Amino acid sequence: MPKNTFVIAADNINVIGSNQTRINTLKGDAATIREESQTLKLDTYCQLIAGIAGVKLTAKSNLPPAVSSSLKGDLMDVGQQTESMANKLVKNAVGARNVFGIAGDNITPEMVASVFADNEITSEAKLIKAVSGEAEKSKVQLAVEKIVGRRSTGKGDKGKRVEGDKWLGGFTYEEIDEFTMMMADQLEVRRAMEAAAQEAADKVDADNESANEMLDQL
């Protein structure tokens, strides 16, 4: 497939546009809106991933620049996406291709949806976590990165994630000191309350034991 002649299939881009039209007009109960919006967004990703599944990626597992540019233009035109949303869609779609190994000329949106279901991808947020590698991190690791920050990452050969040379996010050192002191105080309160609760439970058990012994003697 020549890089400069790539055009996403009309079926795929038209559904993406229809999904966005529906999202833009959703009204009513917040929970219902959220559920339908998530379903439509995931379908948009299924359409997009299926549409680019046959494209040969670069050495770093990105779309060729000409393909990426053409695709973003189609997403902003027929797909009714803003420029920032088109960029996000392409980035996450390519990431999903790499993470889930979705490639080939005969990939359908239904096949992509099946891959999502097998990997418990039920929302755009979960897809982004899977693509970014966040899904593999424990609660403790995520909490530490929230406070201390994390090292940047980039793409090496064949799209493999490699560590970068920048430090991202995290509290200031003053905020970390404040957090450490507050955590120590709260842990002390927690331990005291848990100890008191355990003491009360032990007392109840002891009282019940005494009552049972008295009944046994009657």
Fold topology:
Blueprint (H helix, E strand, L loop, with lengths): L9 H16 L4 H23 L12 H13 L5 H18 L8 H10 L5 H9 L6 H10 L1 E6 L5 E8 L4 H45 L1
Antiparallel strand pairs: 1-2
Helix pairs in contact: 1-2, 2-4, 2-5, 3-4, 4-6
Can you give a write-up of this model?
With 218 residues, the protein is mainly α. It has three domains: 3-134, no CATH class; 137-170, no CATH class; 172-218. It has eight helices and two strands; from the N terminus they run αααααααββα. It has a two-stranded antiparallel ribbon with strand order 1-2. A hairpin with a 5-residue loop joins strand 1 (150-155) and strand 2 (161-168). Helix 1 packs antiparallel against helix 2 and helix 2 (30-52) packs across helix 4 (83-100). The protein is elongated. The model has no long low-confidence stretch (mean pLDDT 87).
Task: Supply the key terms.
218 residues; mainly alpha; 2 strands; elongated
- Estimated share of beta-strand residues: 5-15%
Terminal-residue CA separation: 92 Å
Which consecutive residue ranges, at least 5 long each, have pLDDT under 50? none
**What is the helix content?**
55-70%
Number of helices: 8
User: Shape from CA axes?
Assistant: elongated
Please tally the β strands and state the result. Answer: 2
- Rg (C-alpha, Å): 26 Å
| Largest sheet, spatial ordering of strands | 1-2
**Pattern of helices and strands:** HHHHHHHEEH
Largest sheet: 2 strands, antiparallel
Structural class: mainly alpha
